[in-house]
Amino acid sequence: MLNEEQLELQQLAHDFAETELRPHTSSWDEQRALGDEVFEKLAESGFLGMLIPEEHGGLGFEPATYLAVLEELAWGDAAVALSVAIHNGPVVAILMGHGTDDQKARWLPLMATGEVLGAFALSEPDAGSDASSISTTARLDGDTWVLDGTKRWVTNGARAGLVVVFARTEEDGLGAFLVPTDTDGYSVGDREKTLGLRASETVSLSLNDVRLPAGALVGQAGQGLRYALEVLDLGRIGIAMQATGIGRAAIEHAATYALERQQFGTPIARFGALQAKLADAAQRVSGGRALALHAAERWSHGVGNGTRRGSDGLTVRAAIAKLAASEAASFASDEAIQIFGGYGYMRHYPVERLLRDAKGTEIYEGTNEILRRVIAGEILRDAGDETL
Questions:
Q1: Is 202 helix (H, G, I), strand (E, B) or coil?
Q2: I want to staple 79 with a disulfide (CB 3.0 to 4.6 A). Which of 200, 255, 257, 315 is the partner?
């Protein structure tokens, strides 16, 4: 499904992941942090500007090319891939889809070079899957927007220079706001201690009388929820490809170990039951990848021209891709641990980390339970039930 040029870019990303990410994954996981140097190298390689148009200093990749690179980064380190996906995905997408020319000119070149890292602040302590219940407020005081509230589970929140914050406006809807992180009243709270993706900087944010100019509002006040759901389609496709990279890494580790490990006088790779585990994992991971690329094709046709709704629309394709790929990653990682046996349960080997990382892809950007509801709802609407 990828052309020759895309395959060459994918190979470049693979080489980067092999040399710049994999040697450090264990230490990053133990230390629960990514060093500044990895973001500098990502920026030097152009990976922080993949979806930013060339006119703004980015690479202007097609979605499929972006996903091919993202899979390789996740194959190298899932926490790095998550940071790249948030920065390139929903943050860039909301600017490109609804930002003014001035907003694009100000922020996109800085994001393309890595001078500014992007973050996306939608969830709150009492508003996770139900984004419509957000309580953070944005009120107009003359020509100034004043934001107050708390955000939770914000990836890149401590390192970002720009955060897209969603808040309830006086129009009884949500607005999307561009918040520079050096703004008075913006503060970073506690770092989350997560099961997997331990190196990812996921934090809570506090907004206390944060004052922004009128030009900080993206698009129309009251339309923020629509914008958020729109760009989450791209976010979910990216998470699907991140999960694919995790699953592929698990399969490769398991296959290599199975060829080396001997029991009963023969490599365990010769055992039919073990071969079945590898085959089943490969089937699921390959399916997840195909579904993600299929959804990316629909994204590339353009959002807002009939591609979102219906059981064959972008939203459903993105939901199916993330659902399938994330569960495939967890399955492949779990089977890899079984193939490693007792060693797989030990921290010394990489497969236990992959299982911890894979579990996260079933939760963020919409839990898999929510995604099943999204998919079923569109199918039933197609069948004639307009109440869903």
A1: strand
A2: 200
| pLDDT of the residue at 304 | 43
Please name the residues in contact with 274: beta carbons below 8 A apart, sequence gap of 6 or more. Answer: 258, 268, 339
CATH number, domain at 132? 2.40.110.10
* CA-wise closest residue to 326 among 229, 255, 256, 235: 235
At 351 the pLDDT is: 97
> Are residues 245 and 179 part of one domain?
no
Among the listed residues 201, 352, 365, 378, the single catalytic one is: 365
Q: Is 12 in the same domain as 113?
A: yes
Prediction pTM value: 0.94
Please give the pLDDT value at position 387: 67
Quick one: which of 103, 73, 109, 209 has its CA closest to 164?
103
CA distance linking residue 142 with residue 135, whole number of Å: 22
**How many domains does the structure of the chain reveal?**
3
Tens-digit pLDDT profile for residues 325-344? 999 999 999 999 999 999 99
260 is catalytic: no
pLDDT at 277 (0 to 100):
98
Cβ neighbours for 203, distance < 8 A, ≥ 6 positions apart: 154, 157, 158, 188, 189, 190, 191, 192
Residue 329 backbone phi and psi in degrees, to 5: -65, -45
- As a whole number of angstroms, the distance between CA 245 and CA 242 comes to 5
Is 193 within the bounds of a domain?
yes
* Interval 38-83: pLDDT, tens: 999 999 999 999 999 999 999 999 999 999 999 999 999 999 999 9
* Token reading at 332: 């492949």
Evaluate whether 99 touches 106 at the Cβ level (below 8 Å). Answer: no
- Kindly report the CA angle at 252 between 247 and 253, in degrees rounded to 5? 100
Please give the structure tokens belonging to residue 194. Answer: 């997560």
